[in-house]
Amino acid sequence: MVKRALTGAHYGLFDWLAQRITAFVMIVFVLYAAAAWLFSAPHGHDGWKTIFGYSGMRIGAFLFLVSLFWHAWVGIRNILMDYVHATAIRLALQVLAILSLLFYAIWSAEILWAPGTSWR
Amino acid sequence: MQSDRPKYLDLLKIRQPLPAVVSFLHRVSGALLFFPGIPLLLCGLDMALNSPQDYARLQSLLDNSLIKGLLTLLLWFFLHHFFAGIRFLALDLGYGGALRQARASSKAVLAASILFTVLVSIRVW
Q: What ipTM was assigned to the predicted interfaces of this complex?
């Protein structure tokens, strides 16, 4: 006998939890960044380079950004499910959102680990 | 079933309770932080870290009062999303669900986001 839940795939709960956990990660980083800005704001390009020269800062910033992109995906998906009822259009917009967030994630890694090689 | 009760579906006439306003603004600000918020944040970080020339360009862009004004608006969206989000986390954990607390915390979220927007603007300007 096959035993499985007949109602849904339950990934809604996972998204719900992911939204909250990523929110918590971002709150911690934002409070840290706000304190750093208040007490020793970086001066000029050199100041920014020095701060992001620490691997802890790069990793922390990357964790923040990945949390941000994941959090944004859950929110955008919810908005699209609520307001865009035509399946084809909703699917197209969801693919667009996922692709742009993946693009942002790769761009973030490039900014943090290979500054100066930017495509601009 | 027919009812004689009046229907007000005019969005400009419907008066939403304060927690609903906070919730609505949370969604709107979230959408605007996704776009243009995220690309602007990454562009700024990229320019700040790329080279001294890009840093100088970023600084001259930030000196433009129109750009400053738009970024202040985006800052308010961020702060509202931030404080309203903390409120929703507290509600998830079971705090502040009663009507009085829910109204008071909605007021606090709206007030704090505006207050901090003003404070940060004063410091930056």
A: 0.89
